Amino acid sequence: MKKITFKRNELYEKVWEKPVSHLTEELGISSHKLYKACEELDIPTPSAGYWAKLRHDKKVNKPELPESDKGSFTLTIREESRRKKEQTKPTKQISVSKRLTQPHPLIKQARKNIDKTSLNRYNRVRGGTPLDLSVGPDNVERSLRILDALLKEIEEQGYNLTTKRKNKSYWMLISNGQDEVYFQLREKGNRTEVSDDQRWPEYEYTPTGELQLALFRETYDRTGKVLSDTKSKKLEDRLGEFFIKLEQVMEQVKKRRLEREEYHRKRREEKEIKEAAKKQREEEQERLNNLEKRVNSFRQSQFIYNFISEIENKQSQMDLTEEDQLKFETWIIWARNHADRLNPINQSVKEILE
């Protein structure tokens, strides 16, 4: 069990400084819990469209904090099973317009691209790009109104909304800046076999009128969260639940990202350790090779010094003219200089002491 205490003035500043989706990530609580704390402390929250207007430099109104004798509120976070049970409640009632009067730009674009007279093999309308929308002709307008309300609320809560083409299909993505979740709107269909060929059966697809909003971690993921029409509630009345499911899927994506990052971090550490060990071996081998070269060089220099000594002994036994004596001395100086160049002692001593 975990407790978080919110001070009224501080929470008021926070909810008007950052969108709900950013605050829930920062505070580690659900949006439902955050709205509950604001309600308990009589804190007004941004209305629909506030953050979108702010991003487009439009005039917005920030109401003053009303007077209240409530200074703080302590929120209790219970165990996971209890928390999941509480999150079945919608975080916010999202209103779906009866008509598209000022549609979201993506809705406006999708509406132009939809051809109700051309159906695909699933008997759904073609077009709708760049949105991931696949419904029968009778549900086009309803689907666009649902998506219009949803897209506006997604941006209102501070999420980034994008679309992209992947695997010859368009996908809608919601991002919080670090992680992204795919979602789509589909009309459920029934499949009926219309051929007797057991090897290559043919099917006919019929839309059922039941709309489904699905959230996925990846485009190939088919185990995501699904929100659909029910006998007691239409999808329009359940859009608040979408953001609960969005938080859950976003948390799964975050967990997988952190696991991947930890995996790659360990791989990098292992690689760095191996590279460091390899470098150490190479440096040690280089030192050994250098030592052996200097030993050989030293051995050669000692042979030359000994050879010079024998020459000097021989010289002392000979009766030489001044001119011959000078020739010997010149040669000895030349030979000793060469031996000195080969002798690595002075250089090695200097390196040892450094």
Secondary-structure blueprint of this entry?
Elements: E1 2-7, H1 8-15, H2 20-27, H3 31-40, H4 50-55, E2 72-77, H5 80-86, H6 105-113, E3 115-119, E4 125-126, E5 133-134, H7 140-156, E6 160-166, E7 169-175, E8 180-193, E9 203-216, E10 225-228, H8 239-316, H9 322-342, H10 345-353
Parallel strand pairs: 5-8
Antiparallel strand pairs: 1-2, 3-4, 6-7, 7-8, 8-9, 9-10
Helix pairs in contact: 6-7, 8-9
Query: Largest sheet, described in full?
Result: 6 strands, mixed
Proportion of helical residues: 40-55%
H-E string: EHHHHEHHEEEHEEEEEHHH
Name the structural class: alpha+beta
Overall geometry: elongated
Q: What number is the mean pLDDT? A: 88
Q: Give the N-to-C terminal Cα separation.
A: 61 Å
* Helical run tally: 10
How would you characterize this protein structure?
- The protein contains 10 helices and 10 strands.
- The protein starts with a strand and ends with a helix.
- It is elongated, with a radius of gyration of 40 Å.
- Helix 6 (105-113) packs antiparallel against helix 7 and helix 8 (239-316) packs antiparallel against helix 9 (322-342).
- Among the domains are: 2-86, no CATH class; 105-260, no CATH class.
- Strands 5, 6, 7, 8, 9 and 10 form a 6-stranded mixed β-sheet that branches. Strands 1-2 form a two-stranded antiparallel ribbon.
- With 354 residues, it is α+β, with helices and mostly antiparallel strands.
- A hairpin with an 8-residue loop joins strand 9 and strand 10 (225-228).
- The longest helix has 78 residues, at 239-316.
